[in-house]
């Protein structure tokens, strides 16, 4: 499981530039293989072969000066809860501001590693100026310039060094790991309670790879599975997380740790921005997804049919629309077994391996019926294809001129795969390679 790094600091100190710098390094690698989209606040990075996730906690706070202390406090608390290591960015040009002091005060109490990173240090003079940041009481600092990237190497070395020791091998359990995610008040806890019962059918408690992610094993309706619980979820305790950003970021660890995300949405509110962000977070991490439209008991059935509702959601899911959507009620316990069955099915779908001969037999016919369109008079030939032996479904098609196979055709191939095999709820990758 990845370490999570949070970048904190007041607005305009260069958090986003640093964030982008960390993410781009990684995206450059990822992008060449798949078409992963970028997220403003969350992404993956790597240094010296170690992959980690980065959260830019300032991503939400737009504009600048009129940021209230409360907002910054929330930002830092989020980082403290969710991250393994915190990077606190300050600006040498401005020196120590009252808001920096506020942040430092919060961070001094934290037991997690904090790296103080002084930005905009691009000459010897400023290197000297940086000394004043010892006054923040956070010990040694790192100087860098996020625009040019100078100094980031040392910062990254220290970052990797600061990661807590985690057992390299994960608990090898073949049980599916489900995470129940969604906006506050969508009914996540109600759903879990309705499904599991107050007495909680706990078989064993398995500590996950970190102190923050706990897998609890359940046995319900004949299915065995682990529910992923995280500090962020457990914390819940009526914290008012009105801002979209906070509840999305609270889901990061659970989503990364799970195989399948059960996304609970509130039927009376629809599939809103926050739900979408969580959906794309799961998709981006190549996790299976099931959408539960909860509180269906509250919806006037005359005004809205499940079909209409489903269509509306699917419009928002484009192009990844092959996702199970179920209409449930945690209150009346309507269709809870169905929801669990659908989730287990998505888990099975994600695990399935199509034998190469069967895959070729079907796909080569499909390709023959509708070959890649000729580009600049060139005819692309695909002679062979297979599913890769990867953890999540990936398919490769070998072609004489892969560069001429464009996105729409890849989507055509993906759709055909989905038509013939059940990959409902599962993101899949299609690659075209030189044969
Ligand atoms: P969470 O923040 O996502 O865990 O949401 P909760 O489980 O705490 O539920 C938020 C509120 O919605 C509570 O008042 C629940 O009683 C209510 N609620 C949850 N599920 C349903 C449902 O299916 N139908 C109705 N009518 N209310 C629900």
TrEMBL record:
EngA-type G domain boundaries: 3-167, 176-351
Alphabetized Gene3D superfamilies for the sequence: 3.30.300.20, P-loop containing nucleotide triphosphate hydrolases
Keyword flag Repeat: yes
Taxonomic superkingdom: Bacteria
Cited CDD domains: EngA1 (cd01894), EngA2 (cd01895)
UniProt keywords, alphabetically: GTP-binding, Nucleotide-binding, Repeat, Ribosome biogenesis
Protein name: GTPase Der
Organism expressing this protein natively: Flavobacterium hungaricum
